[in-house]
Amino acid sequence: MEAIKYSEANLMVFIQPSKTGAVSEAIKQQLSSFLFKFNETFGGVLLAYDFVVKSNLAKILSLYPFVGISLKANLLLFAPKPETYLEGKVVKLAQDAIHVVVLGFSAAIITEEDIRDEFRFKIKHGRELFRSTSHKRHVIKVNTVIRFLVKSFDEETLHISGSLEQPTTGDIRWLSKNSEELSSAGRKREDIERVKEEHSIGTIDGGVLSSDSHVLRKPKKQRLHEV
């Protein structure tokens, strides 16, 4: 997962003098208070850590009743960025949105406008699902683990806005079984787009004007959801 990263940091942890008899436990308490919260200094949400005290010498602060201890920490961070991929489990489906949980703590939502046209919302045997019209076995339902693209990440609420517009997004299991087919289809799409760019002389009212035929081709209308 692109949003997971490891980081090494040199930190100064401040503990009360009364806790100098159990320094390791005091440091763990301090670092644990940052778990599953976005920390600007770390540049992400702290998921896990370990540390080594750099010196047996501690610095006593003259102005505050604390002892400063220097340590080296290894951090595991969650730092999703726009245009990177994430994986999560679907927890709820509706006609206008897919709700996902990432790593068990961060909520993500993919709204109707960010679900590509090939997916149609259906209710089958009383269960909501999105089924691909291009690949009948490509189905998204509750408990499906999906890959999606990050649009934005709210650092305060840890809420993610995602997208399924890209052909490399969707059900992880289906994608892994059909990766070669998707790569081939992606190359064909790139070839088509390159040809369009080479022969196009402009755009008019959303259509592409071809320099060869001079025929205005209108884009296809957006498909409606089927229930």
From TrEMBL:
GO biological process: DNA-templated transcription initiation; transcription elongation by RNA polymerase I
Protein name from the UniProt record: DNA-directed RNA polymerase subunit
Subcellular localization: Nucleus
Record InterPro entries: RNA_pol_Rpb7-like_N_sf (IPR036898), Rpb7-like (IPR045113)
Keywords, comma-separated and alphabetical: DNA-directed RNA polymerase, Nucleus, Transcription
Cellular component annotations (GO), alphabetically ordered: RNA polymerase I complex
Main location: nucleus
Annotated PANTHER family: DNA-DIRECTED RNA POLYMERASE I SUBUNIT RPA43 (PTHR12709:SF5), DNA-DIRECTED RNA POLYMERASE II, III (PTHR12709)
Residues passing through the membrane, by range: none
Function: DNA-dependent RNA polymerase which catalyzes the transcription of DNA into RNA using the four ribonucleoside triphosphates as substrates.
Origin: domain of life: Eukaryota
